[in-house]
């Protein structure tokens, strides 16, 4: 019996993140009789690999060194020749050079995904990066972007033919990420959460591009604004990264530790989201945020910055509020609006949940990826 075709997914690192979360959801959702999968990590992988439900997915780590690592490219070439995949699917700039190695290794079908940009190139205008893209993009058969913003950037700035670009939104497991039941409430350890608290929450990699210090500053200003009525205010930021210590220091300096919880990485994200009243994404750039989609699926209104794919997810005044990036005063105003008008939380949250069920199902995402892999 002939085995299903093999897709090799090449990424920078398999750890907690939106790109990685989307990859795991895709592998878990594609029927086993349609495609086999392997993952090549240019650097390493973490325990995040345990989220893959299939037991037939091989994961390789090439342990790339800083800078140009010729040894790593040779290892990649040998591995591709050994695996002989039917399709290679690279993601983002960090893995783009693998497309050239794939050509040399004789892989016939080559796909590249654009999932967003980092702090070093927020608008996709870096001359060096775009020169590299223009050199390698001709070897790519098909591009996938997670937002219309990224699709427009590929076509207009980098000159990719629209026929070679497919835009696919990430899907959400709307059973795992569901609205809070009346029975569950918001009570938690040490009463940080209670039925009386107003919980502002966020989830994400605590790196510079996510700009969590702006959210910390906004929350401190909100505490000052509601000084006589701030006992029930809470802020939760779930995640880890290079800016977490800075955020903890800002909280300590403001003397508001009793109101803020930064627990680091957690495995119980759906349960924590169900304790939140409002979700905030303060990032400087975004492709399509999985955490925004998950928050919407949990029936939360969203306060997000007006960047990248955020404007495609958050319908202003219906499922949330958009603010300019880095503008903590506007963020405070948006959060205060929900605090002062609690009926908007349910109204906007219901709209958000309905939008997820209508436009962002996991089934829709998987079928659209299958169309690309099948060459339709």
List strands and helices in order, with pairings.
Blueprint: E1 6-11, H1 18-29, E2 36-41, E3 58-61, H2 70-83, E4 87-91, H3 92-95, H4 98-104, E5 109-114, H5 127-136, E6 142-145, H6 148-156, E7 165-167, E8 198-203, H7 212-225, E9 233-238, H8 244-254, E10 260-264, H9 269-273, E11 278-281, H10 290-297, E12 302-305, H11 310-313, E13 320-323, H12 328-340, H13 343-359, H14 362-374
Parallel strand pairs: 1-2, 1-4, 2-3, 4-5, 5-6, 6-7, 8-9, 8-11, 9-10, 11-12, 12-13
Helix pairs in contact: 2-4, 7-8, 7-12
Tell me what the structure shows.
With 376 residues, the chain is α/β, with parallel strands linked by helices. The protein has two domains: 6-171 and 361-374, Rossmann fold, CATH 3.40.50.2000; 189-359, 3-Layer(aba) Sandwich (Rossmann fold). It is 38% helix and 17% strand. The protein has 14 helices and 13 strands. Helix 2 crosses helix 4, helix 7 runs parallel beside helix 8 and helix 7 (212-225) packs across helix 12. The longest helix has 17 residues, at 343-359. The chain is elongated.
Summarize the structure.
The chain is 38% helix and 17% strand.
Q: Please indicate the count of domains.
A: 2
CATH homologous superfamily label of the largest domain? Glycogen Phosphorylase B
Largest sheet descriptor: 7 strands, parallel
Q: Strand-residue fraction?
A: 15-25%
What distance separates the N and C termini? Answer: 25 Å
Number of beta strands: 13
Low-confidence stretches: none
Shape: elongated
Radius of gyration: 21 Å
Q: What series of H and E elements makes up the topology? A: EHEEHEHHEHEHEEHEHEHEHEHEHHH
CATH class assignment of the largest domain: Alpha Beta
Secondary structural class? alpha/beta
Query: Which CATH architecture of the largest domain?
Result: 3-Layer(aba) Sandwich
């Amino acid at each position: 019996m002939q085995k299903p075709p093999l897709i090799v997914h090449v990424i920078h690192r398999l750890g907690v993140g939106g790109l990685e979360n989307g990859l795991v959801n895709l592998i878990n959702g594609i029927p086993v009789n349609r495609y086999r999968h392997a993952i090549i990590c240019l650097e390493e992988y973490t325990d995040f690999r345990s989220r893959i439900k299939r037991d037939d997915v091989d994961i390789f780590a090439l342990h790339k060194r800083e800078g140009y690592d010729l040894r790593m490219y040779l290892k990649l070439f040998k591995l591709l020749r050994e695996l002989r995949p039917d399709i290679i699917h690279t993601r983002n700039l960090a893995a783009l050079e693998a497309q050239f190695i794939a050509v040399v290794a004789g892989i016939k079908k080559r796909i590249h995904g654009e999932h967003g940009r980092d702090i070093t190139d927020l608008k996709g205008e870096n001359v060096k990066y775009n020169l590299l893209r223009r050199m390698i993009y001709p070897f790519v058969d098909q591009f996938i972007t997670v937002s219309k913003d990224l699709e427009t950037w590929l076509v207009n700035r980098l000159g990719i033919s629209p026929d070679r670009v497919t835009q696919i939104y990430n899907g959400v497991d709307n059973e795992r990420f569901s609205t809070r039941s009346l029975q569950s409430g918001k009570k938690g350890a040490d009463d940080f959460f209670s039925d009386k608290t107003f919980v502002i929450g966020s989830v994400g990699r605590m790196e510079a591009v996510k700009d969590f210090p702006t959210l910390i500053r906004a929350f401190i200003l909100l505490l000052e604004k509601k000084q006589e009525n701030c006992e029930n205010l809470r802020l939760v930021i779930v995640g880890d990264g290079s800016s977490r210590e800075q955020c903890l220091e800002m909280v300590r300096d403001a003397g508001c530790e009793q109101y803020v919880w930064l627990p680091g990485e957690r495995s119980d994200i759906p349960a924590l989201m169900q304790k939140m009243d409002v979700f905030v994404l303060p990032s400087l750039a975004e492709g399509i945020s999985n955490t925004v989609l998950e928050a919407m699926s949990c029936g939360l209104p969203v306060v997000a910055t007006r960047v990248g794919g955020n404007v495609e997810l958050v319908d202003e005044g219906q499922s949330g509020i958009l603010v300019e990036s880095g503008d903590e005063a506007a963020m405070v105003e948006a959060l205060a609006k929900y605090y002062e008008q609690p009926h908007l939380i349910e109204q906007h949250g219901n709209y958000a949940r309905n939008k997820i069920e209508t436009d962002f199902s996991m089934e829709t995402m998987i079928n659209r990826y299958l169309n690309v892999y099948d060459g339709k």
